[in-house]
Design brief:
Layout lengths: L4 H11 L2 H11 L5 E5 L4 E5 L1 H7 L1 H8 L3 H4 L2 E3 L5 H13 L9 H10 L3 H13 L6 H10 L3 H13 L1 H7 L1 H4 L3 H9 L8 H13 L2 H4 L3 H5 L9 H8 L3 H4 L2 H17 L22 E8 L2 E10 L4 E4 L12 E5 L2 E8 L4 E9 L4 E5 L10 E5 L3 E7 L2 E6 L2 E6 L10
Parallel strand pairs: 1-3
Antiparallel strand pairs: 1-2, 4-5, 5-6, 7-8, 8-9, 9-10, 11-12, 12-13, 13-14
Helix pairs in contact: 3-4, 3-6, 6-7, 7-8, 8-10, 9-10
Length: 414
C-alpha cells in the first residue's frame, strides 16, 4: 500500500517529543492563544500562554495577575527586539537557544528580565567559556550589573589570577573607572610576583589619560604593598619619579614608606593586617614553622615564608602554649599541632589552627603524653602518628585509636 504524503507528515509529527510538537504547533499558529508584540520592530510572535507560564515567573504573573494585560490577546513588550524575544520563546518550548558572541549579552539581559533562569545559566556559562585577558573585565562588569553572582565571582577570580597579562594586553583595563581599579588592587589574593607589577599597572592606567588621571595617583598608590616591593625598584623608580614627588600627597606617602622599608629590611617583621602597606598578599603557597627552640628556650611563635618576596614573617597569632618536638600537619584547611614538649614535660594536647580565620581550636587529647612526634595525612581523613617502632596511633578527630605490636615501620613525616 502506497503511503501518502499526509500520512508521512503525520507520522513524522507524532514521532517528535511533546515539547517539539508544541513548538511546531506554535510556528504554524495552531492552538496559540496570545501574541507577544515587540514594538521596537512591530513584530507579532504567536505563543501558548501555558507554555510561557511554565518557563517564566514573569509570564506566569503576566497571564494570571488579573490585570488588563492578562486578558488581552496581544501583549506588547518594550525594550527587546523580535530576534531576542523569539529566542526566549523558543527556549520556553524546546529548552534550546542559539547563543553567539553577537547576541549573548542581549539574551542574558532578556532572560534575566523575564526570569528564564535556565537560559540565563546557559548565557553565563557561554560567557565564561569565552573569557580571556582581553574581555574578562567587560564580562565581570556586565555580570555584576545583572547580579549574576556565579559569573561575577568566576570572572573576578580570573582577573585576580591573570592580572599581569590583563594589564599588558587589555584595552578594557585602560578604560576602568578608578573605583573598580582600586577594588582590584586592594584584593589580598591579587596574583603578582612583585608589588612592582602593581605600581606598573597604576602607571599604565594613569598614562592613558595623564592630565585627568594623575590626580588619582595618591589614592591608587595606597593599594600598593610597598614594604614588599623590590628596594632598588622603590629607590630608582618611585623615590626619583618627579611626577610623584611633585604631588604633595604622593610625596608624603613615599616618605612614610621609605621609613617603613628601612625597618622592614633591618630585621624580623611582624605582619599588620590592619595596615595595607604592611600586609602581604596571599601567596599561592606558604610555609609555616610553628614553635621549636630559640636561645631563650621553647617558643610559641609562628613564622611564615613567602617565596614570592623571599622573606620570613613573624605572625601575631601564637600557639596556645610553647612547645617543641611536636607533630605538625596540614589537613583539610587546618594546621594541626600534636603532642610535643613545653620545656618541662611531654604533652598530649592537640590543637588546630585555621589560617583563614586566624584562630586556634583545642581538639581531643591523646591518651598518652608524646614527644618527637611525626604525622602524616591519609586519604584526607586520618592522621597517622609515629612514635616508636612498636607503637603507632591512628587519630581520627576528635578520637583516635592505638595500633600495637608493629614490628617495623619507616619514619612518617610531612
Amino acid at each position: 500500500m502506497e503511503t501518502t504524503m499526509t500520512e508521512l507528515q503525520v507520522s513524522t509529527v507524532f514521532d517528535m517529543d511533546p515539547q517539539t510538537q508544541l513548538h511546531e504547533m506554535r510556528l504554524q499558529g495552531i492552538f496559540c492563544d496570545a501574541f507577544i508584540k515587540t514594538p521596537v520592530d512591530n513584530t507579532r510572535l504567536p505563543v501558548h500562554r501555558n507554555v510561557m507560564a511554565s518557563c517564566s515567573h514573569y509570564f506566569r504573573s503576566l497571564f494570571t495577575s488579573g490585570l488588563k494585560e492578562s486578558g488581552e490577546n496581544e501583549i506588547s513588550i518594550h525594550g527587546v527586539s523580535a530576534t531576542t524575544m523569539n529566542q526566549i520563546i523558543q527556549y520556553a518550548y524546546i529548552r534550546k537557544a542559539i547563543i553567539t558572541p553577537d547576541n549573548v549579552e542581549d539574551l542574558l539581559a532578556a532572560s534575566d528580565r523575564f526570569h528564564v533562569f535556565g537560559l540565563l545559566k546557559e548565557c553565563t556559562n557561554y560567557l565564561y567559556d569565552q573569557i580571556s585577558p582581553e574581555n574578562c573585565i567587560g564580562i565581570f562588569r556586565f555580570s555584576r550589573f545583572y547580579n549574576c553572582e556565579q559569573l561575577s565571582q568566576k570572572s573576578w577570580n580570573y582577573i585576580i589570577c591573570n592580572f599581569k597579562e590583563i594589564v599588558e594586553n587589555s584595552q578594557e583595563f585602560l578604560q576602568l573607572p578608578v573605583d573598580d581599579l582600586k577594588e582590584i588592587l586592594d584584593d589580598d589574593d591579587l596574583s603578582v610576583r612583585n608589588e612592582s607589577e602593581v605600581f606598573a599597572a597604576i602607571q599604565r592606567w594613569v598614562d592613558y589619560d595623564t592630565n585627568i588621571r594623575k590626580d588619582y595617583y595618591a589614592t591608587l598608590l595606597k593599594s600598593v604593598r610597598f614594604c614588599f616591593i623590590n628596594l632598588d625598584f622603590f629607590q630608582t623608580k618611585i623615590q626619583k619619579n618627579k611626577t610623584l614627588t611633585n604631588l604633595r600627597d604622593c610625596k608624603k606617602l613615599i616618605n612614610r614608606v621609605a621609613n617603613l622599608m628601612r625597618i622592614f629590611y633591618e630585621g624580623a617583621f611582624v605582619i599588620d593586617d590592619n595596615n595595607t602597606l604592611l600586609r602581604p598578599r596571599v601567596p599561592p603557597e606558604i610555609i609555616f614553622t610553628v614553635g621549636g627552640w630559640s636561645s631563650s628556650g621553647v617558643v610559641d611563635t609562628i613564622e611564615t615564608y613567602d617565596k614570592n618576596v623571599d622573606r620570613w614573617y613573624v605572625t601575631k597569632q601564637c600557639m596556645p602554649s610553647s612547645r617543641a618536638y611536636h607533630g605538625t600537619l596540614f589537613m583539610d584547611g587546618w594546621l594541626f599541632i600534636i603532642g610535643g614538649f613545653d620545656g618541662t614535660q611531654y604533652l598530649n594536647s592537640v590543637y588546630r589552627f585555621s589560617p583563614d580565620e586566624k584562630a586556634w581550636e583545642e581538639r581531643a587529647p591523646m591518651y598518652i603524653m608524646r614527644c618527637y612526634v611525626s604525622a602524616v595525612e591519609l586519604n584526607g581523613r586520618n592522621l597517622w602518628l609515629r612514635f616508636s617502632v612498636q607503637n603507632i596511633d591512628l587519630w581520627c578527630p576528635p578520637k583516635y585509636r592505638i595500633l600495637r605490636n608493629i614490628s617495623h615501620l619507616g619514619a612518617l613525616s610531612i
